[in-house]
TrEMBL record:
EC number: 3.1.3.16
SMART domains membership: CPDc, UBQ
Domain Ubiquitin-like, first and last residues per copy: 5-83
Protein name per Swiss-Prot or TrEMBL: Ubiquitin-like domain-containing CTD phosphatase 1
PROSITE patterns in the record: FCP1, UBIQUITIN_2
Cofactor: Mg(2+)
Record's compositionally biased regions (Polar residues): 330-339
The entry's keywords: Hydrolase, Magnesium, Metal-binding, Nucleus, Protein phosphatase
Enzyme type, top EC level: hydrolase
Catalytic reactions of this protein: O-phospho-L-threonyl-[protein] + H2O = L-threonyl-[protein] + phosphate; O-phospho-L-seryl-[protein] + H2O = L-seryl-[protein] + phosphate
Organism of derivation: Nesidiocoris tenuis
Length: 339
């Protein structure tokens, strides 16, 4: 039939074909069709790349008005009722350590030099395959970035991925790219990393390039006396595979400090970006960190810095720069603009 339209919905790492839609069906019918395929109820669905006049289409809007081409892939966010129920139920066998905890400020967990963990890192170096997206550039330092709550609020409700993107993300990455190769390392699957980077417009941006992605399979488990077994992101995996990167030229941003337990001197704990709709007008973390990266870019070694004091270092750097220039100018060539 000429008025039929076949679409595809991408959700939870899988694709589902919608082959019973007509052009004069409305969005409510579309959502019901998605529900039949995925089990996600219509009121739980966020169709991220479906728009009508720049906004989420109302349920009564006809599919023909959305100007979707046959085979169009709809990106959906949404949770099953069973998953929501599980998330709201406290299990009887709840472990003493949960996945989203963090170690306390200043707490020492001396594990980075233990042979058992160094052996695990070497195994990742040998077995983990890295897909190079863009080649390393000679003389560049390395910036390793987390995604969830670092660049993206992955739990707040939104009609578009843009609403959940941390302010100044693209300006930050463009600025950092002048001195740093950029790697994304998330404790999620590679499929979700790729989807989120596409959603945020990072994977194909013209002003900067991502060297490669790392997922949860590149992480290792370690045991701590206080917290038990936890998963961490050892930078030694990168250093072992790419000798041009070392402790002297690498810095990692993550909202959870435990992720860089194996490399405490190279980690900077970024303030978590949560409740995007409330905080996106006031969050300036990436703008300030872009200036910090600029201020340390010419140092011979980054591992000698205490990144816990990055704001204090940045203030001192600004004062020294102003003193040298003899003006009252800006502390950095980076200029952010409100998204």
């Amino acid at each position: 039939m000429e008025d039929q339209l076949k679409l595809i919905v991408k959700w939870n790492g899988a694709e589902y074909e919608l082959d019973e839609l007509l052009l004069n069906d409305n969005v409510e019918t579309l959502k019901n069709s998605i529900c039949k395929k995925t089990g996600v109820r219509p009121e739980r669905q966020k169709l991220l790349n479906v728009k009508f006049k720049g906004k989420m289409p109302p349920d009564e809007c006809e599919i023909s008005e959305l100007k979707l081409k046959p085979g169009f892939k709809i990106l959906m966010m949404g949770s099953l009722e069973a998953a929501i129920a599980d998330a709201n139920t406290i299990p009887d066998d709840l472990p003493s350590v949960i996945n989203d905890f963090d170690i306390e400020e200043g707490e020492e967990v001396p594990i980075e030099n233990k042979e058992v963990y160094l052996a695990k890192i070497q195994k990742r170096v040998s077995d983990y395959e890295v897909k190079i997206l863009n080649p390393s550039r000679p003389g560049m330092k390395l910036l390793v970035l987390d995604i969830d709550y670092t660049l993206f609020d992955h739990k707040s409700a939104a009609e578009t991925g843009y609403e959940l993107m941390r302010p100044f993300l693209h300006e930050f990455l463009k600025s950092a790219y002048r001195h740093y190769d950029i790697v994304i390392w998330s404790a999620t699957s590679m499929k979700w990393i790729e989807e989120k980077m596409k959603l945020l417009g990072v994977s194909n941006h013209c002003d900067y390039k991502i060297a490669f992605y790392l997922d949860y399979l590149a992480m290792i488990s370690v045991h701590t006396p206080k917290y038990g077994v936890i998963q961490v992101k050892p930078l030694g995996v990168i250093w072992g595979k790419f000798p041009m990167y070392t402790p002297d030229n690498t810095i990692m941003f993550d909202d959870i400090r435990r992720n860089f337990l194996m490399n405490p001197q190279n980690g900077l704990r970024i303030r978590a970006f949560r409740q995007a709709h409330t905080h996106r007008q006031t969050d300036r973390e990436l703008l300030k960190l872009a200036k910090y990266l600029d201020s340390i870019a010419n140092l011979d070694s980054l591992s000698s810095l205490d990144h816990r004091n990055w704001e204090r270092y940045l203030r001192s750097w600004r004062k020294e720069k102003m003193k040298r220039r003899g003006d009252s100018g800006e502390g950095s060539s980076f200029q952010g603009s409100s998204p």
